[in-house]
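Subject: Sanity check before I submit

Could someone independently write out the structure tokens for this chain? I want to compare against mine line by line before I put it in a report. The sequence has 75 residues.
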Amino acid sequence: MKLIAATLAAAMLTGCASKTEFGDCVGLGDKQKPDLTYKVSVRNLVVGIIFFELIAPPIYVAVDQLYCPVGKATP
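---
Independent answer below. Compare away.
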């Protein structure tokens, strides 16, 4: 029962920070838009570290939501 609750909590937490006002977050292998500035999402990284025993959340964060756009790129 605890494993199911932890898995659901991890899914909800990782899904919360998947988008910003500038667009969707991207993972390690995803192509970043050149007109946006990206930074590592500390919140998603912390969730991946906290739930490292469940295997899926850290992989999901690294593959799909590690970098989030934070603003327009300056020329």
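---
OP: Matches mine. For the report I'm noting this point. Residues 2-72 form one domain.
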